[in-house]
Write a structure and sequence with these properties.
160 residues; alpha/beta; Rossmann fold; four-stranded parallel β-sheet; 6 helices; protein tyrosine phosphatase activity
Amino acid sequence: MIRVLFICHGNICRSPMAEFILKDIVTKRGIADQFEIASAATSTEEIWNGVGNPVYPPAREELARHGISCKGKRAVQLTASDYDHYDYLIGMDSMNMRNIERMTGHRRGDKIYKMLEFAGRDADVRDPWYSGNFRETYEDVVEGCQAFLDWLTINKKLSN
């Protein structure tokens, strides 16, 4: 089982998009049984009295345009124990990377990666919260998810 946790600031746009895009890709490839995929936030801004907000409507709508549902997903916060549970903690941008390291007490390396580094880029996944462009974010996330699966295959961590 390959356990993957996608992480962004609030867990209402980029990381849930990554969670459900990767779930969709592995389901279509017939390898979903090899994965546990989730997402989390580095902040508590989208969590009130222990209950997380749902995926932000424009993010949900962008996923729906591609036939992907994120129904029932609510924001949750990253915990230090997530480092022990997941094989890969994948941050969406440089600030997330710093927060992941701080919150887990671990450095980038065996388990902590920045999403687009799998695609050979040191770029951040574009944040639609500021740009309003959820299509661009979707494209970044698809690129990152496909490159991650290619990386797993090349490194013989994934059986097809």
